[in-house]
Amino acid sequence: MIQVTNLTKKFGKFTAVDNISFNVEKGEIFAFLGPNGAGKSTTIKMLTTLLKPTQGVMNLDGKNPAHEQSQTRKSFGIVFQDPSLDDELTAWENMEFHGVLYHVPKDLRRERIKQLLEFVELWDRKDDLVKHFSGGMRRRLEIARGLLHHPKILFLDEPTLGLDPQTRNHLWTYIKNLNETENLTVFMTTHYMEEAEKIADRIAIIDHGKIVAQGTAEALKQQTKTNSLEEAFLSLTGHVIREEEAGSLDQMRMKRRAWRR
Amino acid sequence: MSTIYILWLRQLKRYFRSKSRIIGSLGQPLLFLLALGYGFGPIFRRAGAGNYIQFLAPGIIAMTVLFTSIFFGIEIIWDRQFGFLKETMVAPVSRICIMIGRTLGGATVATLQAVIVFGISTLAGFKPASWVMALPALFVMFLISLLFTALGTAIASKMEDMHGFQLIMNFLIMPLFFLSGALFPLTDLPKTVDIIARLNPLSYGVDALRGLLANAAHYGLLMDMTVLSILTLVFLLIGSYLFSKIQI
Fold first, then answer.
1. Which residues does chain B have within 8 Å of residue A249's beta carbon, measured at their own beta carbons?
2. One digit per residue, pLDDT tens: chain B, 248 residues?
3. Can you tell me the ipTM of this complex?
4. Contacts of B161 in chain A (CB under 8 A)
5. What is d(CA B147, CA B66) in angstroms, rounded to the nearest whole number?
6. Quick one: how far is CA A232 from the chain centroid?
7. Residues of chain A positioned with their CB less than 8 A from the CB of B248
């Protein structure tokens, strides 16, 4: 479903993604893990047509994200790390707009909106403004929205960040369910190692732009002779905290947190 | 196209749902109109230039359009990281359609605000020379708002965060407003101010509104409309181009 071969992205002299290659099978839940600044977001942006690679080839459901942008976009849905809902519209309106943007015909759209909102248990809140939704509810809405056009692949960028255990559990149950019944391919990133260990079929660990290990959680634990994915991860990427500078995005995130409730 | 319609509709829904923002943003034009209008009224009259409220109202209407439009464009900076815009970037629709839909929506909202201010100014004593001219005036308001919405979009497309915003406000927007003939007549100006006013797109907008609503154009209606139309087109093209180059 997803094939990445020798993918590289350079920003001037800085190489964010360095010659990585991996495959994701149809119907697989694939976890992409790595420390901050490792190149995860850059990779996802390239796969989701938001950035052009410097070198390398990508194949998403038979299409090339770098050259066939419009076509590729129909094949995937994405739940971003930062929420991308419209606060001042209702849940229903957010879904409707997505449907129009993805050219889902009206009757089909209405039917699916009902189906999906019921699936994430938000149908009774469909006419409420999103600004009154909690973090968990927003994530659920975003998942429902991302699936409206029935994509074959769902990208989840830190989907459970900041959510309580009940919501996290619920979210993964939905995802697992979709994966099993619809054969949905899931590409996720997360910092919650226990979740990745429980949910993902296969894992790739990226650090400094390179893939340092790939395989099932079991295989990685054996490779590093550790007992949990978290230990395997730390063993592969080191215990040193990464030096980071707050970019404009981080600053905006902090301001946003200051303004919320 | 349905994409353009839905983006336009979204802007309108957001506008009508925020009563406090509508009323709040009317505060400044109202303040200017009443404080300056009644404050400078007597001096203006004594200088032989007539009724200041008559003179000022079109300027304040143009001011409303300017501020609403630019702010709308600036919203992009926030929206692109935390809002709906990101979702549209990943959707199978062209950036141009997104830009057009948003710009039309923003311009519609700015025009609506301007109409409200127009209404309020008539309560404050402004009498349009002829109500027949109200319709062309509406068109001019829409044209100006397209111009500045596109300009706001162009600026915001190049900005990564809100920091540069203060700079833009104080060094671009305020001068655009104050040196446009909105507050003072363009006749017999010192050479420098006259030149700056001539280079300022808003001057032509104010002048056109004044021409249509008060029969008091300085540059002449034809000149105003020509300049406005050309500039609007140019800014729309620049805005679309920069918008299409946004990276998330």
1. 81
2. 888 999 999 999 988 988 888 888 888 888 988 899 889 889 888 888 788 888 899 999 999 999 998 888 778 887 877 778 888 888 999 888 888 999 999 999 999 999 999 998 888 888 888 888 888 899 999 999 999 999 988 888 888 777 777 788 788 888 999 999 888 888 888 999 889 999 999 999 999 998 888 887 888 889 899 999 999 999 999 988 998 888 77
3. 0.83
4. 248, 251-252
5. 9
6. 22
7. 45, 50
Q: What is the pLDDT of residues A48-76, one digit of tens each?
A: 998 889 999 999 999 999 888 888 999 99
Q: Do B81 and A252 touch (CB under 8 A)?
A: yes
Residue B208 in contact with residue B86, Cβ under 8 Å?
A: no
Sheet holding A55-60, edge to edge: A14-24, A2-11, A55-60
Domain segments of chain A: what residues?
A: 2-19+26-259
CB nearest to B92's CB, from A73, A88, A256: A73
Adjacent-strand bridge partners of A155: A78, A187
Superfamily (CATH H level) for A2-19+26-259: P-loop containing nucleotide triphosphate hydrolases (3.40.50.300)
Q: With an 8 Å Cβ cutoff, are B6 and A129 in contact? A: no
For B31-46, what is each residue's pLDDT tens digit?
988 899 889 889 888 8
User: Domain residues of chain B, as ranges?
Assistant: 2-244
Length of chain B (residues): 248
CB contact under 8 Å between B86 and A49, yes or no, is no
Amino acid residing at A183: N
